[in-house]
Every structure is written in structure tokens, then in C-alpha cells.
Amino acid sequence: MPRNLAVPFILSLPPELLIEVLLYLPCRDLLRAGLACRQLRTIVKGSLELKYNIELAADDMIDGPRGPGTLTTSQRYHQLLQRRQRWRTLDWTQQINVPVLGSCQAYELVGGMFAKSMGHVGTGGSRHLITTWLPSSTKAARSAVRDDLGVPTRDFAIDPSQDLIALVNVDDSPTPTTTPRRLTSVSSAREESSSPSPSSIPSNVRIRVHLRTISTNAPHKAAAKAVLQTPVPFQIGNCFIQIVHDVVGMFFWLHGPGLIIWNWRKGETLVACLPQDDRPLGHTPMIPQQPTITSELPPGTWDFAFLSNRAYVLSTIGGRGSIEIYSIEDDDNGGERTVHVASLMMPDLKGGVGMHHFTTHSPPLLGGDLTKDKPFATSQDNRVHLMSFHYGQQGPRFHLFLKNSFLFSFVKNYDGQRKTLRWDEWGPDNTRFLEHSIQFQWLRYVHGQRVVLPPLPVPNHPNVISRLCVLDFNVHPKRIDDPCGATPGRHGGLTYEVFDEESFIPAGTIFENDVVSRLPYSVASKLGRFGYSGFLIDEERLIGMKLSMAFAEGDLSDIDVFTF
Predict the structure, then answer these.
(1) What is the CA angle 103-109-111, rounded to 5?
(2) First to last CA, the chain
(3) pLDDT class for 334, splitting at 50, 70, 90?
(4) What is the distance between the alpha carbons of residues 353 and 351, in angstroms, rounded to a whole number?
(5) Total-model pTM
(6) Where are the annotated segments for Disordered (predicted)?
């Protein structure tokens, strides 16, 4: 058939068949089709199924299961738009107080579940766990209390979509001095810990990660080994553990930073980067028959985050600071190896200025069905990473926002040569660089492309304690046909603004040049009586945290859940 007859032939199809064809198109191609001619535009605008696909993509969502008892396309479409508008206006459907009684040693928020361990770290860890499925706009909260996990747990991670909990137990003899995890980040907590003398460090410390089910506390059937373990040459201080699909990663700090990544389904160690000390070589751990063993992390390593189950980033504070990107790839011997894919340099600094405290935080990555019992769910591809840092001991604090898809693009496009990019080659178009005086006390303040800030005090305002602010990096400034209509702007105590212009951080006494960034975002803010020490966020909720003891174990009796 001649090429110029292809479009007339497509348009000759009955509308119901043409819609079925268009449903196979990605969102961008579907939008282009609607611009091709009046007939296609009419079909796209008149089809509920096509409009639903467009709005799903606009909100960076994926569709849920279809079948008996699930929502119709019309119901999904209207619920999607309603939730979009509620987040823009911070108009939650309800505020529910949820009891989570007892002291807080460590906590986690993943997949709609809030979990908290209790007990004193000085006794070797907590044996108590409370898990709570948080309420939504349609479901009530439900909790389960486990009084004895069977093992003292210093830290834990969960993935409810895989019914998986990873319990961290460290077999060492001295009593550790450990900051309760998740009341602050590991990399900030490292400054609070003091290193024991070499004589007090056991030579046979062993990290153990017990792989259990959340529902029964039994060994997880999908795990090749019930317990993952690795010897280390020192007593562990602070640690942070994450589950991503088929891997478990632990970043820790005492004599230096350390990183271990296991494939929990195969029972193998993929990465073991352990800091060295000045003791005899015989005390250095030997881990036989493992594919990737590295002696140390890069100089100045400060923090760690997963990009996927086979890629991760490290933040480093050496020189101007950098973001180091790694992938875990198959090698020729049937094992796996770590590949240093790229180095992204931070802005140039004036002489005598150094970076300090370079943390990174991103949302959890679920390994199971994201849309189970949901009409739609947030995609994990474009989630936001929030990096916090300052220069010098008392310098101003900055936040850098960038998307996982950008960082992961270096892994996907790796051609065998590590790339090193200056700030002006990658930063301005792919980040938003802001000066913020705020400091996060609680983790899990990022979900998808949204970030919730700690409550900002509002002095001398009647009936108002603070301002709630939610940043959203999934915005479309040039869009003119949003079904939710015009943005609300400013109204009473509510503000919604889109920022798509360049922002400038003056060079001042820190940078060689003004720092420019232009990643678009929006800010929804609301005045209220928010007497919290911080907020957590997930797909459907904000969670107000009342505990103010950010650097010591304290009592966390209840949380306030705001559902959308």
C-alpha cells in the first residue's frame, strides 16, 4: 500500500476499532495522534478509555487489575482526577489517629504498612514488632503485634508486596552505641557515634540478616537461605537496610563506610565493600566464592541509595562532591561484578571550601505487585531522589532534587566507558538546587515524585502553628487541557504554585559561579495547627509524627494519618 494512503485507511476504520488500536499507543504518541487531524482529535477526546490512559501517564501511574469486583474505567478516571486535585489542594478525606504504642527503636513505611520495633539497643536489639496497615479513604487500619521475634533485632526492612521482613542481628560482644534508625539518617547519625578502641573490637563480628514473612514470622519460602551472613572486621555502629526486589542492601558506618548487597533469593553476596583498619592482615574478612568483593568504597563516601535491584548511587564529599553511579552486571564466569558507570560532579567551589554531610534519600522500591487491590498505583521509574548537604561546619544547607530515571539512564546507556560530567554538563537541566534551612528528622518523606517537608513554623499567627508543604516534581507547565482545570493559586491558607523558571543560587563565598537549575516542580502548602516533628508520605497518605526525640529512643504512642 502506498505510504500516503496509510492515514486514510486508518481513519476508515469504525471508531470502536480505531480506539482499540490507539489504546496500544504510549501516552506521548497518543497525544501526537490527537494533533494529526480533527477526526483523531475528536476520537481521543471522546473516548473515556483513551482519556484515562492519558491521565494515568500524566500522573505517572500504572493501571491496576481488571475483572469482577474491580472499578470500571469511568470510576477509575474520576477517582484519579479527584486524588490529583486533593493533593494539589491538600484536601484530605479524613484525619485518623492510629495508636502504635511503645518506644520507637526503628520504624519503616512501605507499601501502606507502618512497622515499628521496640526495645533497647543496649540489650542487643529489639524482639518486639508492631505492624499496621494504615487506613485509606476506603479501608480502616488494622494492626498486628509480635511480642517476640525470636532474635534481637538492631534494624529491619520490610516489603509487604512480597510479605518479606529482613531482621538485622549483629553477633558481637561489646555493647554497641547505636542511634535509633530512621529517626535520622545513618550518615548524620555517624557523627553521634564514637569508635571503640581497637582492643574492644571483636575479631569475629558477623552480620546476620534473618529473612522472614511479615505475616507469620516464619522463614521466607522464596529465600535460598533463612539467614544471610557476612563477617566484618569491626563492631557495627549505625546501619541502614533496604529491600529492593530480589536484593537486600545494608549501608553502615563506624571506622568508615561499608556496603553489603545480597541476592536474598539465591543466598549470594553480590557486593561487599568493607572499610579496612590498621590491624594485621589476618583480621581482614575473607568471604570465599563470592562474585564481587571490593576492599573499600570511594574516598569520601557519605551515603547510598538504590536505583534498581542492579544499580545504586553513592554520594561522596571529596573535593567539590560527586554522585557516583554503579551497576551490578553479569560477568564471563557466570557471576556478577560491580561496574562504575558514571561520576556526576557537583558545582565548583571556591578555594578553601569543602562539602560536608552529603545524604541521599529516595522512596522504597517494591518487588511485588504494585497494584494489588488498587485501581492504579504510582510508577517507580521516575521517583525523586532528595540529596541534602552543606559546606563547612556551619554553612547554609542545600537540597538537590533529581529523578531516578535520569540517574538510571547512565546505566542503560553504558557503553563500557565510565562518564565523568561537570556540573554544567548535567546539573542545570536535570535538577532543582535549592537553599533550605530545614532539616528532616524522619525518613520516608519522599514517595514517587512528591516530597513532604517538615512543618514550617509560622510565628505570630492566630490559630496557626505551622505550614505544611508538599513539593511535586511531576508537573506539566505547558499543558492547557488539564481536566482538573486551572490551578488554585492562593486562597486563604492554601497556596499552589508551579515553578518552571530557572532558579539561581548566588556564588557568594561558596561557589565559583552562580548555581542554575530548572527542573520544574510545584508546591502545595497549607496553614494549620500541625504540631508534629515531621511528616511521612506515601501514595495515599500523609503521616504526622509526634515524637520529637530525633536522636534518642523515645515513646511513639500514636500517629495521625491524613488520607487522600
Answers:
(1) 145
(2) 52
(3) confident
(4) 6
(5) 0.89
(6) 169-203
